[in-house]
Amino acid sequence: MNIIDKANEVEKIIISKGFNGSVSIVYEDQVIVSKGFGYANFEHDIPNTNKTKFRIASITKQFTACAILQLQEKGLLDVNDTIDHYISDFPNGDQITIHHLLTHTSGISNFELEADFYHH
After folding, report:
1. SS3 state at 52
2. Which of 19, 72, 82, 83 has CA 20 to 30 A from 65's CA?
3. Which domain holds residue 39?
């Protein structure tokens, strides 16, 4: 079975399970599938597309942490590095480490608590 057949099989499974979201399948820099399934807004019948933005909040934290630790294992970064090493103009970046970010001890406020966050 070639990659296109596999992607078509995945798409059939996605549809049969009633998946609601967006999917991109890329193989060797070639986009095989990039589309939305289900609805971004059920009330107004607005379908998901490959450009739908989702408020994923904390869902990716564990994957990000894992990737950072893998980069540390490879010697490509150190969790004790300050973030100004990577983002030169970040406020207080010379005092905040990657470890602080991973353990939520950086002192950076939760952007969802900002008054206008949900009004954009």
Report:
1. coil
2. 19
3. 1-53
Catalytic residues: 58
**pLDDT value at position 118?**
57
Q: How far apart are CA 9 and CA 12, in angstroms?
A: 5
For residues 71 and 78, the answer to whether their CB atoms sit within 8 Å is: no
Residue 112's pLDDT is what? 60
pLDDT digit string, tens, across residues 6-54: 888 988 999 999 999 999 988 888 888 899 999 999 999 999 999 999 8
Contact 22, 52 (CB under 8 A): yes
Q: Contact, 79 vs 102, CB < 8 A? A: yes
Q: Using the Cα atoms of residue 38, residue 40, residue 46 and residue 47 in order, give the sign of their dihedral.
A: negative
- Which residues partner with 47 through β-bridges? 39
DSSP 73-118: HTTS--TTSBGGGTSTT-TTTTT-BHHHHHTT-S----GGGSTTGG
Q: Are residues 2 and 49 in the same domain?
A: yes
Helix (H, G, I), strand (E, B) or coil at 50: coil
Is 120 part of any domain? no
